[in-house]
Design goal:
With 227 residues, the chain is of the alpha/beta class. It contains eight helices and nine strands. Strands 3-2-1-6-7-9-8 form a seven-stranded mixed sheet, with helices on both faces. The chain has a two-stranded antiparallel ribbon with strand order 4-5. Helix 2 (20-30) crosses helix 3. The protein is globular.
Length: 227
């Protein structure tokens, strides 16, 4: 019992300390404009650093994000700071949340990098315990674009009744994930995200790598190390 408690405390302390260097390296992107609220739902600094590194090191151009948020602003700020030719499509279930992010981006002059897609949630007809983004809305926006970076951090999947919701995003990856690219999954230690990971592995024949238990990476094709 004491050993379990010690291990839990040690892991929590290690994860906290492990965020310090990434937070320091990312501070220019986090503090270059409006204040960005950092909550328990926000992608951790170390995870965000992996995404930013991948964009820069491996020259990612077309980014698809499920679940808009601080990550969207950070990626757009990066595009402006480094003069990158980057296009971001960010899908979210909340029009109010999108509107708030759009205001921040317009004020900072970075809104040209992001296309927001408001896709209301529908109850999935083929995945149990899942809501899904409106398929017609998402397909209309992504078309035949092949994305070389995909970040999966939505829709909401924190309750038992919707625990497999992020698994439904797989249909948008089947034909739209580039031959060379990266898929990132946040909250990867949950059951629904684990099912999604197994599906990605089986379909694309690529192995999962974990930065930490809660963050998974799948890389397809040749690439430079960004972890």
């Amino acid at each position: 019992m004491i050993e379990k408690i010690f291990n839990k405390v040690f892991r929590a302390s290690f994860q906290y300390k492990n965020q310090e260097l990434p937070a320091f390296l990312l501070q220019r992107l986090y503090h270059s404009g409006a204040y960005l609220p950092y909550t328990i739902s926000t992608i951790r600094f170390r995870h965000m650093a992996c995404i930013i590194n991948d964009i820069v090191i491996n020259s990612r151009k077309n980014i698809l994000e499920f679940g808009a948020g601080i990550s969207t602003v950070i990626m757009a700020r990066l595009a402006k700071l480094n003069s990158l030719n980057v296009k971001i499509v960010s899908v979210d279930q909340s029009s109010e949340w999108i509107a708030m992010l759009q205001t921040i981006m317009r004020d900072e002059g970075i809104d040209q990098y992001v296309t927001f897609v408001h896709a209301p949630l529908q109850r999935s007809t083929d995945v149990e315990f899942a809501n899904e983004f409106d398929r017609a809305v998402v397909y209309q926006q992504i078309g035949e674009t092949r994305f070389d970076l995909v970040l999966i951090d939505g829709p909401t999947a924190s309750r038992k009744a919707n625990r497999n919701s992020r698994l439904t995003n797989f249909r948008f990856l089947e034909s739209n994930f580039a031959d060379t690219g990266t898929i990132f999954i946040d909250n990867a230690d949950r059951s629904g995200e684990e099912l999604l990971a197994r599906k990605i592995e089986a379909h694309f024949k690529i192995r999962e790598a974990k930065v930490e238990e809660a963050f998974s990476i799948f890389v397809r094709g040749k690439h430079f190390n960004f972890r």
